[in-house]
């Protein structure tokens, strides 16, 4: 959306602008950014993207508290009704080798 506000309508144009700013990205990564749901983005990439679009990171990201809440274990899962956890027992067997001389 921010790219459209700046008059950038094609991902290829955006990719060229990023390359001019020093960020070379693959067509696949550009496609996921353009679709609006990239799985990851590096902070250094975000810095260049914000510089090209003349915006702040908050202009490009939308908080999703529902997804955060869905990732938390429920209270029923967090409580262990089976009693205390089993004690940690040492592993016996072959000791570690000595370092080379």
Helix content: 40-55%
General form: elongated
Largest sheet, in brief, is: none
Oligomeric state, counting identical vs distinct chains: single chain
Q: Quickly count the helices.
A: 7
Task: Determine the N-to-C terminus distance.
Answer: 61 Å
What integer value in Å does the Rg equal?
A: 24 Å
The portion of residues forming beta strands comes to: under 5%
Low-confidence stretches: none
Mean pLDDT: 81
- Order of helix and strand elements from N to C terminus: HHHHHHH
Number of extended strands: 0
Structural class: mainly alpha
Describe the protein's architecture and organization.
This protein has 101 residues and is mostly helical. It is 49% helix and 0% strand. It has 7 helices and no strands. Helix 2 crosses helix 3. It is elongated, with a radius of gyration of 24 Å. The model has no long low-confidence stretch (mean pLDDT 81).
């Amino acid at each position: 959306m921010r790219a459209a506000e700046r008059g950038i309508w094609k991902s290829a144009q955006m990719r060229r602008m990023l390359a001019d700013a020093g960020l070379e990205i693959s067509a696949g990564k550009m496609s996921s950014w353009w679709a609006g749901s990239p799985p990851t983005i590096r902070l250094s990439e975000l810095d260049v993207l914000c510089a090209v679009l003349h915006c702040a990171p908050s202009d490009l990201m939308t908080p999703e508290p529902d997804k955060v809440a869905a990732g938390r274990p429920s209270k029923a899962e967090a409580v262990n009704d089976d009693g205390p956890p089993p004690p940690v027992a040492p592993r016996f067997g072959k000791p570690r080798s000595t370092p080379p001389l």
